[in-house]
Amino acid sequence: MSSPVKDSIEEITYEMNYGYEDRFHWDGALWVQAAEGVVPPNAVVAGYEGEVTYIGRAKYCGGIVPGRVIPSKQACFVFYDGLESPLRDYQVLCGHRGEFVRKDHDRYKDRLLRAGVTKRGKPLYLGLVHIGLKSIVGYVDLSKDRCYIGMNGYEKRYTDYYVPVKPWNEEITYEMYYGYEDRFHWDGALWVQAAEGVVPPNAVVAGYEGEVTYIGRTKYHGAIVPGRVIPSKQACFVVYDGVERSRRDYQVLCGNPGEFVPKDYDRFKERLLRAGVTKRGDPLYLGLVRLGLISIVGCVDLSTDRCYIGLDGFEKSYTDYDVYVSNEVTTAPPLALSGKSSP
């Protein structure tokens, strides 16, 4: 851990990561991490198959394969080696202002949008095939001039297809989004969207429960609740209404130069890091309880001066705990300790 006190205030910088290497964000496109049928704001519509689908991509067999997200089926469907595969963890193209046009590679070659890569390093592009009342997105291999889509579980190939292209002579801008509203990125913290036990680079360690856990948070019943990600259990665990809950879709705190210290609000009040919010709008903070050889992260409600953690499936509250503080001054609101009941 770094020193709890710095002689001067420094600007905090973070490495941006969505679960795929930055070099695969070709052409300035914004691919937002999601899972389990979640569709972020500003997602680009892919086509229609009895419901609207969205442009997605997923890692598969060493490649990154473009496809489409079908919300009702809670997956991104991609096609590889002749078969259609549903993947629960994927990325969604967001904020892109291009359009699908009939293929004309000589005319549009400078405006094509790269969306994936084969395991051999060959770029893959997006394609759209119209079949009756349906329009299905797949991937295009320019070396073969074919669009590959999935239909009834199998891969189909078409030579008549559409490709998405970027606008003419226009600087493309995107709205950054991690799956939670920007106003919940308090105090300059970077919360990276993840799912199914995935831990992004630079994730902040939470504690130890037979394995290292990581600081996470998740949306639950109108609140954003801090907790911990346990990779082997493929979920973020939080406590709410007296019970421990597990969520497959969550955010992970990344790159934050802070640490857990014994609670001392008079000393650390300007360095507390807000990590969540109750459904009534009250801020929640990060706490750590040490129990023998294990240390468990939970949420702190300053109005009760307690840290709430999950233990054996139930909520436990403690008055003796450590609190997470940033090594920089934050903009945390004034503290107001009282005897109010648990949120």
Question: How would you describe the overall organization of this protein?
Answer:
InterPro entries: DM9_repeat. The protein is mainly β and 343 residues long. It has 2 domains: 135 residues, no CATH class; 137 residues, no CATH class. It is built from 2 helices and 28 strands.
How many discrete structural domains? Answer: 2
Rounded Rg = 23 Å
Structural class: mainly beta
Strand composition percent: over 45%
Largest sheet: 7 strands, antiparallel
Mean pLDDT: 77
Number of helices: 2
The shape, in one word, is elongated
Query: How many individual β-strands?
Result: 28
Stretches where pLDDT falls below 50 for ≥5 residues? Answer: 1-23, 168-183, 331-343
Distance between the termini: 31 Å
Portion of residues within helices? under 10%
Question: Can you give me a brief rundown of this structure?
Answer:
The chain has 343 residues and is mainly β. It contains two helices and 28 strands. The protein folds into two domains: 30-164, no CATH class; 190-326, no CATH class.
List its traits.
single chain, 343 residues, mainly beta, 2 domains, seven-stranded antiparallel sheet, 2% helix, 50% strand, disordered C terminus, DM9_repeat
